[in-house]
């Protein structure tokens, strides 16, 4: 009895494995056939397009729609969108493909991966394609300048902004009213921020029931660069120089320490990125620094009235930009490069950029997107979305250097060791500067 | 003393079960944290629906099932033969080869992604289920635990089978395999749960929906660095991914536990 049962199970598994293998054979056959067709019908182009999803939802549907709409307009070009995890996974997959001489045709990767990709000789400058395109200059100049900053290197444009964001200040209007602050007047300076956060912090004996402000520090020091920009610093330049050991950086660190230790209006130590919006929605934090990508999430889930404001200024307003850009890869045919360029232009057209912004919460990357009817309607019903766009006037680039991962890690661990009290700001940053200099030395020839 | 033991056992059980309960609660409640409650509350299938429609989960279930069973089946063959060789046969360099196998346990799988990728490219197995499976067809840990089990089986059993004229493969099939059943079961648990949850390797070598496993579907909802965590859909997706495994465990619970007891007693 046992034997015959086992026999059937084994047979079943064998069949499953065989069917699994045979299916892959089929798909190979299909691809062979379609390439036969290519040569007959001339110039049928297929593009592989890697994209990450970073907003925790079925965004893949929207991307697939953009791809199929494009094919409808350009029947000879077929786009194969491939979901590739988050930005890190997408980068690993892309790098592995490049090492295997099997690169994708185009991909959305972090804007700050520019130098890493350049060092691998993996991408082509968009200028090559813009030369043959009469409308290209007009097209590129329509992008919001702050978003293009991470695209430029060696006087060339290497990537086209797609899903971009910037941090803003979210504040709980009802909490403002409760403590006698004007809900239409969010903090404008660091002093306001300290002042307001003191009023907004609610304690029950020793337990904090609501923090005045919450600035996440668990991921890379993205928001941190905002504080440096607000203090008149620049943090990094040209991909090979960093300025960690500067007064602006020190001021930024001191503000974090003051909020946590002197005024006790922010939790001590490293604050988690992912749970910060949840804390805001649950009313455990009255003001938070977070990405505009979170706007839709907070709008849908907060059962109180909330406002969105510029990040408070120190010497001036300032915020980094973040997010992903389109890249086109080296080692693919000219026709494919042209086709990829056409697709990028299609996916970033004013209407698409506007709709993409409404669907995802990213900021529309082009000025003309704000002229479209859908966008105007959206902003009317949801004026908070406009704040981030207006703040871009003061925005700078996100930190991006050669060996970006390593340099970011150096800054991050120095930053966090200051927050947890392991190191003093001055010595931590001095050390970080030395380490980063060592990493960047080879690129400064 | 006995009460203390019971107490600790219950305490640990509760600690282990909390995340699971939390996931289930979150899965079936609306995506609004303020209305979240332990009992009562609004029960809804909305999250499951969102997730199910967000990615081709039916296809992913099938793929994961094929990949996991395919790997396990081939592993059973390879580890049984290899374990027998290391346990009972004498050949040149046996100990050194066994040592090399053991060293392989210590190499993290992620390090091998790039070289494995290049080999699969040369075999044109990129973007196939077979490509996902092939690097895992042999298992060092499986060979190791099975060899230990085989060594503990009395040699007299094999001798008497030989006297009756049994061939080598029949000896393995009729003497060793039945006696090592608990070990096979324990190993299946390790193998299935590992490959069920594997994400990065399949993501890197496959691109088409036809070949990608469940974890890729989960990632669409779980990776939300740009917005912060959205617990309801993350929980729903997690629930859908782990549900078959949890269900299987409940059904075969008795066998699993008794198998571990057997291997323990021996």
Describe this structure in words.
The complex is a heterodimer of chains A (445) and B (266). With 445 residues, chain A is α/β, with parallel strands linked by helices. Chain A folds into two domains: 44-165 and 323-394, D-Maltodextrin-Binding Protein, domain 2, CATH 3.40.190; 167-320 and 403-444, Periplasmic binding protein-like II (D-Maltodextrin-Binding Protein, domain 2, 3-Layer(aba) Sandwich). Chain A has helices at residues 2-41, 59-73, 87-99, 114-119, 127-130, 136-141, 145-148, 173-178, 190-200, 222-230, 247-262, 276-281, 295-301, 334-347, 350-360, 373-381, 384-391, 404-419, 425-440; strands at residues 45-51, 77-83, 106-110, 152-153, 156-157, 160-165, 167-172, 202-204, 207-214, 236-237, 241-242, 285-291, 306-309, 319-320, 322-328, 395-396. In chain A, strands 2-1-3-15-6 form a five-stranded mixed β-sheet. In chain A, strand 4 (152-153) and strand 5 (156-157) form a beta hairpin. Mean pLDDT of chain A is 88; it is low at 19-40. Chain B contains 14 helices and no strands. In chain B, helix 2 crosses helix 13 and helix 4 packs across helix 7. In chain B, 33% of the residues are buried. Chain B has one domain (22-33, 41-265): Orthogonal Bundle (MetI-like fold), CATH 1.10.3720.10. At the A-B interface, helix 1, helix 2, strand 2, helix 3 and helix 12 of A face helix 2, helix 3, helix 5, helix 11 and helix 12 of B. Chain B: One of its GO terms (biological process) is transmembrane transport. Chain B: Residues 61-252 form the ABC transmembrane type-1 domain. Chain B: It comes from Pseudogracilibacillus auburnensis.
Give the percentage of residues in beta strands of chain A. Answer: 15-25%
Distance between the termini of chain A: 77 Å
**Order of strands in the sheet with the most strands of chain A?**
2-1-3-15-6
Radius of gyration of chain A: 25 Å
Number of helical elements of chain A: 19
| Protein structure class of chain A | alpha/beta
Q: How far from one another are the termini of chain B?
A: 27 Å
* The CATH class of the largest domain in chain A: Alpha Beta
The H/E string of chain B reads HHHHHHHHHHHHHH
Largest sheet of chain A: 5 strands, mixed
Large-scale geometry of chain B:
globular
Oligomer status = heterodimer
Number of DSSP strands of chain A?
16
Q: Quote the beta fraction of chain B.
A: under 5%
State the CATH class of chain B.
Answer: Mainly Alpha
- Averaged pLDDT of chain A: 88
């Amino acid at each position: 009895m046992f034997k015959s049962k086992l026999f059937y199970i084994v047979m079943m598994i064998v069949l499953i494995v065989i069917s699994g293998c045979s299916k892959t054979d089929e798909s190979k056959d299909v691809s062979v056939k379609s390439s036969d067709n290519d040569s007959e019908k001339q110039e049928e182009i297929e593009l592989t397009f890697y994209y990450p999803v970073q907003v925790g939802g079925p965004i893949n549907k929207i991307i697939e729609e953009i791809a199929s709409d494009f094919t409808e307009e350009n029947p000879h070009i077929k786009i194969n969108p491939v979901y590739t995890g988050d930005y890190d996974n997408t980068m690993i997959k892309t790098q592995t493909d490049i090492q295997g001489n099997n690169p994708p045709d185009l991909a959305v990767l972090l804007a700050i991966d520019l130098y890493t990709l350049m060092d691998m000789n993996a991408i082509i400058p968009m200028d090559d394609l813009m030369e043959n395109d009469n409308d290209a200059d007009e097209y590129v100049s329509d992008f919001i300048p702050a978003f293009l900053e991470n695209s430029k290197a060696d006087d060339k444009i290497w990537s086209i902004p797609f899903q971009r964001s910037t941090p803003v200040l979210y504040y709980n209007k009802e909490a403002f009213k409760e403590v006698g602050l004007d809900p239409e007047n969010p903090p404008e300076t660091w002093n306001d921020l300290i002042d307001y956060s003191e009023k907004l912090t609610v304690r029950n004996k020793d337990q904090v029931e609501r923090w005045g402000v919450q600035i996440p520090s668990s991921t890379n020091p993205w928001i941190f660069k905002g504080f440096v920009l607000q203090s008149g610093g620049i943090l990094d330049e040209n991909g090979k120089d960093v300025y960690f050991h500067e007064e602006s950086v020190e001021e930024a660190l001191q503000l974090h320490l003051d909020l946590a230790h002197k005024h006790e209006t922010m939790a001590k130590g490293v604050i988690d990125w992912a749970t910060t919006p949840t804390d805001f929605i649950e009313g455990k934090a009255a003001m938070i620094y977070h990405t505009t990508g979170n706007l839709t999430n907070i709008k849908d889930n907060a059962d109180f009235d909330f406002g969105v404001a510029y990040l408070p200024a120190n010497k001036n307003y300032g915020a980094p930009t973040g997010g992903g850009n389109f890249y086109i890869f080296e080692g693919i045919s000219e026709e494919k490069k042209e086709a990829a360029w056409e697709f990028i232009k299609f996916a970033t057209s004013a209407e698409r950029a506007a709709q993409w912004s409404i669907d995802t919460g990213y900021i529309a990357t082009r000025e003309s997107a704000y002229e479209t009817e859908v966008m105007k309607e959206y902003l009317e019903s949801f004026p908070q979305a406009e704040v981030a766009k207006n703040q871009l006037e003061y925005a700078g680039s996100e930190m991006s250097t050669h060996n970006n991962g390593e340099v970011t890690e150096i800054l991050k661990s120095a930053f966090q060791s200051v927050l947890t009290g392991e190191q003093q700001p001055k010595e931590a940053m001095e050390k970080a500067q030395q380490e980063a200099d060592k990493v960047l030395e080879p690129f400064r020839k | 003393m006995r009460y203390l033991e019971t107490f600790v056992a219950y305490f640990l059980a509760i600690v282990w079960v909390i995340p699971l309960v939390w996931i289930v609660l979150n899965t079936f409640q609306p995506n609004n944290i303020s209305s979240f409650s332990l009992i009562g509350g609004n029960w809804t299938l909305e999250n499951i629906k969102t997730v199910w429609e967000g990615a081709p989960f039916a296809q992913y279930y099938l793929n994961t099932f094929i990949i996991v069973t395919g790997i396990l089946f081939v592993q059973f063959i390879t580890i049984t033969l290899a374990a027998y060789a290391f346990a009972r046969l004498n050949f040149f360099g046996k100990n050194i080869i066994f040592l090399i196998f053991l060293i392989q346990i210590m190499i993290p799988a992620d390090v091998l992604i790039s070289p494995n990728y290049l080999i699969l490219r040369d075999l044109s197995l990129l973007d196939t289920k077979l490509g996902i499976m092939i690097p895992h067809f042999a298992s060092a840990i499986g060979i190791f635990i099975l060899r230990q089990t085989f060594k503990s089986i009395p040699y007299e059993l094999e001798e008497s089978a030989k006297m009756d004229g049994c061939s080598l493969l029949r000896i393995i099939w009729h003497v060793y395999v039945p006696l090592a059943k608990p070990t096979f079961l324990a190993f299946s648990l390790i193998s299935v749960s590992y490959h069920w949850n594997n994400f990065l390797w399949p993501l890197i070598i496959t691109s088409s929906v036809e070949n990608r496993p469940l974890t890729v579907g989960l990632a669409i909802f779980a990776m939300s660095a740009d917005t912060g965590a959205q617990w309801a859909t993350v929980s729903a997706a997690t629930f859908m991914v782990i549900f078959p495994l949890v269900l299987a465990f409940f059904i075969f619970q008795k066998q699993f536990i008794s198998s571990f007891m057997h291997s323990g007693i021996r």
